Amino acid sequence: MSDARLNDVRPRLFGTDGIRAPFGEHPLDQPTVVGLGRALGRTLAADGDSPLVVLGGDTRDSTATLVGWLAAGLASTGARLEHLDTIPTPGVAWAVRALRGSAGISISASHNPWPDNGIKLFDADGRKWSPAAELALERALEGAADLAPDELRSRVVPVDRAGHEAYVAFLTGLFARPDALAGLSVVLDTANGATHDIAPRVFAAHGAQVRRLPGTPDGRNINLGCGSTHPEALAAAVVEAGADLGVAFDGDGDRALLVDAAGEVRDGDAMLYLWARALFAEGHLDPPAIVATSMSNLGLEHALAASGIAVVRCDVGDRAVMETMRERGILLGGEQSGHLVHAPTTSTGDGLVTGLALAHVVARAGRPLAELLSGFRRFPQILRNVRVREKRPFADIPAVAAAQAAVEAELAGSGRLVLRYSGTEPLARIMLEGPVLAVIEGQAARLEEAIRGAVGSG
Question: Least buried of 124, 296, 354, 437, by fewest C-beta within 10 Å?
């Protein structure tokens, strides 16, 4: 199918992680958001009377307004609302199942800066809505009549902390022993986001010695020079405090990164290695495999293969990770960003579950994180972007196909090439991995030249 035809059947408002845009601009303007709430309410009502919708969000100053707009649309259809207040996105996904809701809505733009915000939808099973369901909702929104002025009025939704506290109780009950992290010193960077209150509470509840980076959410400082996208301050704080571990969350808490005692940031690949080996050693990784995306480092495959654990590759995106896990019956998967999923515990990526589980691995081993990761060696990796004027299949471009075949023959199992077009920008993306950096640099240069000569935009 051509790119043009694909664009006709893909959701337009929804991207790979819900709706995301600058607040107040389409599609996060008031008429669109109220209309979306109404379309969602009508869609859910088709399956039963008075559906329950669970709402929550991060610390952006626009989140409460978006909750009010969505609530106005939902209430006009008779939907019941449960507002969890400020809560991580995975907390909404968890609460949908716990409260037997029909859907969940998290208001967040994840790791984006404060002017942006977003809307993430979860189904009754706490899973992200499928692209087909998102497309159907968009079509229902497009077919709706213009809203009357009284329908655009924001609705005040009372906060019910019961679901919020139930999620906290779930996190504090993750381990058999309430003092599972006793003796472990941990520094937390909550990104001034949705985990700012919950993360220190649950780590302390498990017995950890907790220090949180200074900072109080003010509506505009979420992700500002902090969190998983800016872990530098956390790395310095871990070293200064002589702590065992640092954990950095993003704004909505669906991902986490680790920092070891020496201040080295450990990404999702290292975390997958650590978690997979721990589960395998306990007999809790059946089948003995994990899911990682095409962007995960080849070193992860080699390191886990030495332990008898396979790596199944999938497309980029946490939804692709989840779909592959379900299709293959695999229990653990994730991305380099730190968005990890343990299927027996969560229905979506949960940075708090990830951080707690890996802190537990370190505490139980009684050895430093760096030592536990000594068997993981990252291969040199190169990422190149080439701006293009069109996205013709690479196989239909003789010069590119020939260059690709030559590079793959040279790698001959010792390296890896991923050649793809960006889904959102006019770019061809080249990712190369191999044991010798100078070799893959030369291979990347040949591929760039071939792409520019055939479809480059200058």
Answer: 437
